[in-house]
Amino acid sequence: MNTVDFLNSREDLLSPGISACQGCMAELSLRVILKVLGEKTVLVVPPGCMAGAAVGGWNKSLGTKIPAAMPQLGNSASMLAGIKAAYDLVDPDVHCLAYAGDGGTADIGLQALSAAAERRDNIIYVCNDNEAYMNTGFQKSGTTPHGARTSTTPVGSVGRGKVNFKKDVPMMMAMQNTAYVATLTPAYMNDFVEKVQKAATIKDGLVYLHVLNPCPTGWGTKPENSIAYARAAVQSRYFLLYEYRNYEFTVSAPTKNIREPKDVTEFLQKQKRFAHLDEQDYEEVRRVVNSRWENLKKLAGL
Amino acid sequence: MTRIDALTGNECVAEAVRLCSPDIIAAYPITPQSVVVEVLASMKANGQLKSKIVDVESEHSSMSVVKGAAMLGKRVFTATAGQGLAYMYEPYFSMSTMRFPMVMTLACREMISPGTVWCGLQDALSVRDAGWMQIFCENNQEILDMVIQGYKIAENHDVLIPMNVCYDGFYLSHQTERVEIPDQEQVDAFLPPIDLPQYLDVNHPAIVDPNTVGSYLIRYREDHLKCMQTAKKVIREVNDEFAEKFGRNWGGLIGSYRLEDADYVLVTIGATTGAARVVVDAWREKGVKMGLLKIRAVRPFPEEEIAEALKGRKAYGVIDRSVCFGWNRGIIAMETFAALGKAGVCLPGLSFVGGLGGLDLRTEYVDKAAGMIVEAAKGAIPAGETFWMNEDFL
Amino acid sequence: MENEYRVVYGDSGLYVLDTASWRTFRPVIDETKCVNCGTCLLYCPVCAVKKVDGRIQIDLSYCKGCGICRTECPKQAIMWVKEEE
Predict the structure, then answer these.
(1) Are B215 and B360 contained in the same domain?
(2) Shortest CA gap B250–chain A (Å)
(3) Low-confidence ranges of chain B (pLDDT < 70)
(4) What ipTM was estimated for this complex?
């Protein structure tokens, strides 16, 4: 079955009306992930865009058609590990899913996540990476890229956005031999769905899915261009699609099949958060993007 | 058959946990609690423990793991001390306000700074308003007994509040005492299996811990505080049932020694009570009617019992192993003052702060305090004064 | 539990916002151009696009009017119609 027919046949397990922004890719990614995993899933959604959009419930009503719980910002992985440990006594086939933002993953939640991966807790941890704390007004996170203007890395007479570079969480997770690591972005939906399907079959440890989700509100882009930015991120090799399992890296088709990569400006330009960058900054980004690609090629034996 | 053994306080915790057989245990070792985690791991390695152990990387995660498991209505356990409790504070508060029952033991430790790993009750008492029940133990047998009673009290449907069983780090955690260990059948007959719904259930979707408006939240708090008062009754009832079945009566919310006809009262908490018993006997030998009031429950605070116990006495003094910043007194002294004030019971009371950072609260210190209480009754020492049991005290 | 404000959980149904009211434009399929490829179905963040009997349909009940379907449509088969007052 092709991806269109497959997704069409699956039930949408989120509330149809949640308050995510127009063109929100975090909403799309979560809907697709839940469609793939199905209704035998328990969702943990820490403070962030999705919890704020009522996926984490409101008063006594639910934002999901599956059971859900809201942990604190830094303990998604550990609380889910407890849920999984208890669910193993009840029904080991239930998927235990965390959908946390990049702040809850790369910053405050990293320790708990790393420990759960080390313990090989069989949970599916998804990082919704929109490259800053978007729910609360675009504060910088560990995955905010170099040069990005955020509310805590403002641009002024001296400041030029974030000084340092994006923390590479999926690579960290791979380097500690997490059971399955994959990077995804909704522009490549076949690849996206296949990886989530594969995640559902992993039973020997933690699954870490790192999803780049363009955020029109935080990035300063038009809602209708969210998919286009996700595509440009891949085509410029700003965001690399790959999988890791059992000491093997596999570069995914959308990245592997790039014949002539687009320049990073294809992705950076027209985003308001990068509006102040000049050619020197672009060159710096190109250098990092190339290094990461060369590194991945070595790891994947390309 | 009851088994008699010589165990440390930490070992008593592990024995009691084994008997209560929680579904999930997650604990991170920290001085002076580490032996609890080691012994539980050893029991598991030797096939003596049914519980599943999740080996966590921090206290924040240990409480988070057990909170997750409690969402399926499971019985859970963790233990910590001092800095670990501080690090755990975020999920710790949420565990109680979610109203998930459990027992967590605390091998109480002084808070830094200056750097210390030694005894003090500052860790537990600093979080007395985080919604947990807190019971303080005097000896190792009491620790073992209170873990077992703790599950029964916490899991009572009219309570549903987690409990800290607290004991002085090193003084009890590392001290070996004679202990009676009940057998599994006895405990099973006393402590029924946990009976709570599976809140997170794929067959019946629900939202656990959603965002709420204040008009909802205030109702949760109201019920929590009401149930904390109900817990007083349940603690007494469970104490009485335990006394009947196991032959040991710890007194419920408070304990006492030679208090009936006492003119002067030493008010204590935790292991200090042992020294105070010796001092009470010594003063009785001298013909002075000294008595002892031991505070067992700090949350819920036994205000009625304390007012009743101190009413009509000549003077009292509270010995604290903690400080109440901003009040220049010990924490239990402040709580006792408040209880008496509310009840309209008026008598001279003194606050003694000692034993901090592992300092030994020797009988000489308690004896000197007893003498000062007698002086306070005569008006020779102003009521409400605070005395520091440092090296200049004697 | 005796008191509904005891253990913090709830099962009183779905919380649903009227997100359709956010729209300033709505997508309308130009049937003469649409080839029912389903690209819009893949990318709609609110899953408003369905395929029924092989034909693509847009359910406007919760469509926020983000315009991704229009941008991504390989046949330019989605018209952008202003919502009237």
Answers:
(1) no
(2) 34
(3) none
(4) 0.97
